[in-house]
Structures are given as C-alpha cells and as structure tokens.
TrEMBL record:
It comes from Geopseudomonas guangdongensis. GO terms for molecular function: 3-hydroxybutyryl-CoA epimerase activity; delta(3)-delta(2)-enoyl-CoA isomerase activity; enoyl-CoA hydratase activity; long-chain (3S)-3-hydroxyacyl-CoA dehydrogenase (NAD+) activity; NAD+ binding. This is enoyl-CoA hydratase. PROSITE patterns: 3HCDH (PS00067), ENOYL_COA_HYDRATASE (PS00166). Keywords: Fatty acid metabolism, Isomerase, Lipid degradation, Lipid metabolism, Lyase, Multifunctional enzyme, NAD, Oxidoreductase. In the N-terminal section; belongs to the enoyl-CoA hydratase/isomerase family. Belongs to the enoyl-CoA hydratase/isomerase family. Its EC number is 4.2.1.17. It catalyses: a (3S)-3-hydroxyacyl-CoA + NAD(+) = a 3-oxoacyl-CoA + NADH + H(+). The keyword Isomerase applies. One of its GO terms (cellular component) is fatty acid beta-oxidation multienzyme complex. Residues 497-592 form the 3-hydroxyacyl-CoA dehydrogenase C-terminal domain. Residues 317-495 form the 3-hydroxyacyl-CoA dehydrogenase NAD binding domain. The keyword NAD applies.
Amino acid sequence: MMYQGKAITVQRLDEGIAELRFDRCGESVNKFDRLTLNELREALAALGTPPQLRGVIVTSAKDGFIVGADIGEFLATFDLPEAELLAGNLAASAIFSAFEDLPLPSVAAINGIALGGGLEMCLAADFRVMAEEARVGLPEVKLGINPGFGGTVRLPRLIGADNAIEWICTGKEYDAASALKVGVVDAVVPAGQLREAALDLCRRAIAGELNHLARRRPKLAPLRLNQIEQMMAFESAKAYVAAQAGPHYPAPLEAVRSIQKAAMHGRDKALEIEAQGFVKLARGEVARSLVGLFLNDQELKRKARGHERQARPVRLAAVLGSGIMGGGIAYQSALKGTPILLKDIREEAIQLGLGEASKLLAQRVDKGRMTPLQMAGALNGIRPTLSYGDFAQVDLVIEAVVENPTVKQAVLAEVEGRVGADAILTTNTSTISVDLLAQALQRPENFCGMHFFNPVHRMPLVEVIRGSRSSAATIATTVAYARAMGKTPIVVNDCPGFLVNRVLFPYFAGFARLVACGVDFQRIDRVMERFGWPMGPAYLLDVVGIDTAHHARAVMAAGYPERMGADGRGAIDVLFEAGRLGQKSGRGFYRYEADKGGKPRKLDDPEVAALLAPLAGEARELSDEDIVAIMMLPLCLETVRCLEEGIVESAAEADMGLVYGIGFPPFRGGALRYIDSLGVAAFVALAERHADLGALYAPTDGLRAMAASGRTFFGQA
C-alpha cells in the first residue's frame, strides 16, 4: 500500500500501475470535503515518490464515483473573508492541477454518479471511461455558484465552448451515451468491465499507443477560438443564458463570462479567473439561499427516513372523492407503484378522475418519459368503484370530498366502519381543523391530515397534519406513503390553515390592503413578480379560485380574529359576489381564454377596475419598496409565529413548506432566511414603521428578543 487514508488509498498494481481509490470511511458516498482534499494532496505526493511507476487509474469503492463537494461545509466557507476564500479555492484547484501534471498517464473509471467536483476530478485525468449506467454533470449553478475545481476551464477545452456552456449553465446530469457523444468520456462499457477497461487504456498509453501528453495539451492551453469566433460564441450565449436564467439567478451568466475571460489564457491563469468568479457568487445572497434550501431539503429527507422506520406498509390505498384532485392523487399513487381505489358516489365523477389520470399518463408517454405498456400498467393500478366492497383490504384512505366539515365528518365516519381496525384515515382538507374532523371517529389515533396542493402531479409538498390524538404510527405511515408517492412531506401541528395557508392568507391580506389604498392590482402583480414570485397575488388568487380563497379567508378570520378578522368587504368579496371565480370560470381579476394548447391565457379585463373602485379609500403614494414591504411583512411574521408556536418544528421545514407549497422565490431561501438576509433587527424596524397597518404587522416578542441579541434563524449572526 503506497498510501492509506480515511478517504483515499493508493495501491501499486502489476506493470507499474497505481490505483488511487476513493472510499470515504463511515459515509455512503464519496465527496470532496476538507479531509478528502487534504488526503488527495498527500496521495499525489506519494504517487510522485516511488521509482518505476508508469501510470495511474482512479476508481471508487462506493456505488457512485464522487457526488461532488461537501455542501454541508459551504455556508461556513462562504462566510470567510474574500481573500481567504479566494486563496482556499485556488489551493484546492491546485490539487487537481497537480494530479493533471503527474508525469505518467492517468485514467478515471467512472462507475456511478460523478457530479461537480467528482466530474472535475475526472476532467483532470488524461482519459475517462464510464460505466453504462453512470451519470455525470456540473450542477453547481443550481446552488447559485459555478464550478470551482477547474470545470469552467477544462470542459470547454475538451468539448468546445458551446457544449461546455450548455453543460455548465443548465446544471443537468447526463447519461453515458450523451457524455461519450460530446467527448466528455473516451469509452463506455458495462459496469463489470469498467476496471479492466481503465487498466487497458492505461496500458495502451504506457505502450505509446495512446498519447496521453497530446490529450493533456489542449487543457493547458488557451481555447482554440480566434477573436471573431469568440465574439460569436460568447455574446450570443450570454444573451440566451441571461434570458433563460432570469435576473435573479446570476450563476449561469457568470459562468459564460468566466469562460470568455479565460479563453485567451492557459490553464493556470484561467483557473485564477474561475476562482474569482466563484468567490463573487459564493459571497452573494443567492448562493447562500440556494445552498440553504439544499441543506433544508436534506434535513427534511433525514426526518422522513426517521418516520419511515416506524411506518406500516401501504400496499393498497384509496381516495374518496374523484374529480380533478382525486384523479391527480390516484395518478400519483399508481405512477409510483402503490395501487389505489378511486371512489365516488357518482359515475360521472369517477370518469372525470380517471380522465385526469389518463391525461397525465398520456402526457408522459408523449414526452417519452414512459412507454404505452407502462402507462397501461399505471392505469391498471387505479381501480374505480362506487362502493366500499374492497375497502377491508385498504391500508390508507385519503378523503378528498368537498371542503365542508359536516360532509367530511359524515364521509370519514362512514369509511371508518368499512376498513380494518389498523387502517389509517387521512383528510385532504386545506383549512378545516383535523381535531374537529376527528370528533366523528371511533379511532382518532388512526387519523391525520394529508394536504396535497393543486395540481397534485406538479406540486412537491404534502402537509401531514398531526392532530392532538394522532398516533406516531399514523404520522409515520402517512409520511412514508407521501414519500413513496414522490412527494416531500412536512409534518405540522393542527391549527386553522396549518402552515402554508395560515401564512399565505396574511400575504393576501397585504394585497387587499394595497387595493384599498388605491394601488392598481396589476401593478402589485408586476412588483411581486419582479421580487421573484412566479405569479403576482391577483393572478395567484385566480389560479387558486376566488371561491376557494373566499371560503379559506373566512376560516382564517374565525381562527385568528385579532389579526385576520374581516375588516369590511375586500377585493375577494367583490369578485366572489360578481361570480368571477378565477380561471375556473374564465373571469377573475383577469379574463382567460384557451390558447392553441388548451391552456388558459391571461388577458386584461377593464371591468375589474370598475368593480374594485368603490373599495379604494384615501389614495396613498407608495413606492415599489413599500408594496413589497406591505405584502411580505405579514407573510414573514406569520411564519415566525408558526415556528414560535410549534406548528412547524424547525426553520428549515417552515421555509421549505413555503418554497414547495406556494412558490416562495427559491433564490430568497424562504421567509425566515429572507428575514436573516435583511437582518433580524432591520426587519423588526421595518415592521415597526408599518405598525399603523394593524396586528398582522406587529413583530412578536420572540422576534424582538432575537433582534436585540443578534440571533438569527439559521445560526449566522
């Protein structure tokens, strides 16, 4: 053994070939954390000392190759002074260059996933061979940064600027065939032949059959583009990338700029340019927010795995109430492999639900994401029924009938008598108290909320609502089933609106207040879309449904009268009374017509201004910043209350609920990280400046204490 570490070993094989193997002790995957980078430096020093060494292959003992850098170390690293962060990045990059400069041929054997730094390690090798099922990519832009271990330097010099820009700026993963086609790898073989194929490439290079120095040379030189070719390649790429990424995500455009600036330089100077671009992004709020979201998501997965260890199996599920929502739930369950009964009391509702599932499956076939045979198998997993005949075998029921507590209680009591004693009942209510509904049940310990968001197939979040008598097994099994459906579950405690709707309706209250101040609702939409929301509040209300919002607002007002109690008629009331129910009726704040693809197209409707005019009181001159504050303060403050009251267990779960549930701008990280980014003390001061707007704008005592002590939600003072 030439080198033995906790993450890397180097062993001399026959014929003077060394094997540098990644195998991080105590971890399921290999990643470039500080320990691994330090050991790679030491391992390369060991490779440089023994005589008669003729080549090296790089392998992994894990199922994957290297998943990338250790993202858990990012935020602390990003907090370093700029000069220290730059020096650290250059030092790490120099390790990869030292590997590239070894005086012997090198071959990377990519046995599984190789992302970010994992692929950058491979790019530093002279040759790359890849297993058929492996995947590679540079996904750093999804975290708000660029590759920092030479990806923006070596990849363009290997596969050309155009291909490299596509790989880096989209952050996609690519299969072996795609990697081979553009020249990222030199060969693709079955997994069982990978190591021998790597050794064969190394032997051929040692024998002079393959010229490893010639393969290395382009990576050390400037890009082979003249000035005119560079201008054509980069200027058009910058325009396209900027349009695709949008104004809130700077990393893709910064990547193109780094490649362009480095094009005329050799490797070492190009790596300095890459490091400067990396540091610029790493010190920005977007990178902090997106890395924070990634870490939050990992925390959610960790908690879900803990629940899964207590879960009972769900072999057969059922949804009560067909139609669009029921059909969407049935589709998602069957698609992911859990058969489901689709029950309603009306045949036409059954057909509507089946039609929704069929449409969604057909779309997957059209996009090449499943075969017609797979579609047939998924459809066979949905069993429509008008009776409870098969319910004795059901493990978990999702009630999705009309949002009326009396109706829901009757349906839940009825189905409880038709299922086994251990079957779990859940309700898809969006606002009604789980404890209230549980009053109709004989076994309330087997009952909880399971709140899906519409459209089910697109929205990743499921709120699992714990009632006061819900058992741990009930929550665990519901969480596990949501995960099996491909969803991200967040466990919250029972209260009016739970987490997402409780936080959303103060945001709508801010919108109503602005309309009452005479602010044009279309201006509000434009301002909030520029802030980063996928759609403004008026447009969102149309999509949610004015009738749905009208009902939910009444529930919120009853639950939190001191903050959300109705203060006269608002915009939602006016449109509801006018029968303008949003997209579903073709008229809401906007008018809707179907486009060529059948999707609703938003159009202006002059009638709305006249309807809303009587609501406007004394007009106030408000800046765009004022509009953002009046909209965002109540949403953020209600999120703080949910955390302080224990409705949601952690800041990570609160923020992920908003990003996954209502499209909170990901680059801002969620409501609580947004408060952190402004500074807790500054946020409290902003709220106090708007104190005249009522109780929704009042900071909590806990938030004031955080501001006074310098604490933050995510531990960065």
